[in-house]
């Protein structure tokens, strides 16, 4: 949740309207028919690029970004879209979400979180090659022709489409807000298109001299991360897959390995890769706020709140999503002109889709929470065959700024979030200074080190060994050897 924060639902509508350029034109060359990046694609890509970068936390700079850029350009030229690396723009995004995507016009993206999950350069090339493959195969155009529009797809999308929100007007709009808060913008591809992109990525790996089996290993890591995330969320269902749109990576691992072949060939550049990504921020960037268990703290805005036990927080560019089995919520902001009653009513109005009957709250009440002026109201709305209660609880932070929660629970259960509402408070300068980011470090296994002893150094209080194994691509029961380089997450 970066600063300044624009209204989440307004931002969602704006990004959905971004004109994502279509696939490249077909041009004749002296070597036959190849795809090229058209002038129109370049123009449209250049127009979409700043908005995409802003939505994903901004572009990173420095050695790590330069390294990702060099690998991305090397693999992108294998697609035949262009023979010039300068025609491609490869961006490392400051996002804590596992995601990668590409758009026509030569624009390729990956998040720092996804890079941190990888274990060698060939895996980085595989992911970026997969995304370029979608562009080369014209998948975006084909999906649009099948009436699939550009949409914001969030990591909580499948969670929010459950019984609680099904067929609910407010649920549909709230879901858009949550999805926006998860920082993901992409198209939903079919399973066949994902397989085709995998195969193209493998072909690009071969042409660039990388070990083509890297497609299989990185998909394996993504599958393991999905499973771990689902367990940490307390869910028996898998959380949405890579970019919340790609079919389950676990179902593609064997196919990718078969396609690549089992014989070792090509380079992985593991040690070089690990040396280049060491020092990456892992998880939330303090400038966007930090999720630590059930607690969210924003050192720049100097605020903190705690969600109820059993709820999972996901920090996004425009909002913090809070989800559990008993209800959903988000924390965000909107324009504020000094009138709290008007602010609360506008928050309810933002939940109404164009052309739909507006959600009208009951009486707006005033209170004070830890010295902060606050206002709140409730509206009961239909959700399928039942009723749900929607609450907007807002805080006047300054004369020109305010923040608010939007919560949705089964009718009569609004007390579920009372503790969260009351937990909002300002933090001191000392507390703000104490908020530190988690960092990815690379260490060499020494004599006496074990998976268990190394995992104890992970900057988490729960699932340390599981996190360590997923981060390093280690299967259950696998051990480490002296001299081996491993990744750790520390403060």
From TrEMBL:
Keywords: Hydrolase, Metal-binding, Metalloprotease, Protease, Signal, Zinc. Residues 441-488 form the LysM domain. Pfam families: LysM, Peptidase_M48. One of its GO terms (cellular component) is membrane. It comes from the Bacteria. Residues 1-16 form the signal peptide. The keyword tRNA-binding does not apply. This is Metalloprotease.
């Amino acid at each position: 949740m970066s600063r300044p924060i624009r209204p989440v639902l307004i931002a969602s509508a704006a990004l959905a309207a971004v004109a994502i350029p279509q696939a490249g034109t077909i041009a004749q060359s002296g070597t036959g028919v190849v795809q090229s990046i058209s002038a129109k694609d370049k123009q449209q890509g250049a127009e979409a690029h700043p908005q995409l970068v802003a939505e994903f936390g901004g572009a990173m700079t420095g050695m790590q970004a330069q390294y990702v850029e060099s690998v991305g350009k090397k693999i992108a030229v294998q697609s035949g879209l262009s023979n010039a690396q300068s025609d491609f723009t490869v961006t490392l995004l400051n996002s804590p979400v596992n995601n990668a995507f590409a758009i026509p016009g030569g624009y390729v993206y990956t998040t720092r979180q996804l890079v941190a999950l990888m274990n060698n350069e060939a895996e980085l090339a595989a992911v970026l090659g997969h995304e370029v493959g979608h562009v080369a195969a014209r998948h975006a155009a084909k999906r649009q022709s099948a009436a699939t529009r550009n949409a914001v797809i969030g990591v909580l999308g499948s969670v929010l489409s459950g019984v609680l929100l099904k067929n609910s007007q407010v649920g549909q709009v709230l879901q858009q807000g949550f999805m926006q808060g998860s920082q993901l913008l992409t198209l939903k591809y079919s399973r066949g298109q994902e397989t085709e992109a995998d195969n193209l990525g493998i072909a690009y790996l071969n042409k660039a001299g990388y070990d083509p089996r890297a497609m299989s290993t990185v998909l394996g890591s993504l599958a393991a991360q999905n499973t771990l995330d689902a367990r940490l969320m307390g869910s028996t269902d898998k959380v949405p897959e890579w970019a919340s749109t790609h079919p389950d990576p676990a179902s593609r691992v064997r196919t990718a390995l078969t396609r690549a072949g089992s014989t070792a060939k090509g380079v992985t550049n593991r040690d070089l890769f690990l040396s280049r990504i060491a020092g990456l921020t892992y998880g939330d960037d303090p400038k966007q706020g930090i999720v630590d268990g059930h607690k969210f703290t924003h050192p720049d805005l100097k605020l903190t709140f705690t969600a109820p036990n059993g709820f999972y927080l996901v920090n996004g560019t425009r909002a913090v999503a809070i989800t559990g089995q008993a209800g959903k919520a988000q924390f965000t902001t909107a324009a504020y002109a000094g009138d709290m009653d008007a602010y609360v009513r506008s928050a309810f109005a933002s939940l109404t889709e164009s052309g739909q009957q507006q959600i009208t709250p009951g009486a707006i009440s005033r209170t004070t929470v830890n010295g902060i002026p606050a206002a709140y109201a409730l509206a009961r709305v239909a959700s399928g065959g039942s009723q749900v209660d929607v609450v907007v609880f807002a805080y006047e932070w300054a004369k020109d700024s305010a923040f608010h929660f939007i919560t949705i629970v089964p009718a009569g259960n609004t007390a579920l979030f009372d503790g969260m509402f009351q937990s909002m408070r300002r933090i001191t300068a000392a507390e703000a200074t104490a908020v530190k980011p988690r960092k990815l470090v690379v260490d060499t296994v020494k004599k006496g080190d074990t998976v268990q002893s190394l995992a104890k150094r992970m900057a988490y209080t729960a699932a340390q060994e599981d996190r360590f194994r997923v981060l390093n691509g280690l299967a259950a029961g696998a051990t480490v050897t002296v001299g081996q380089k491993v990744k750790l997450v520390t403060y």
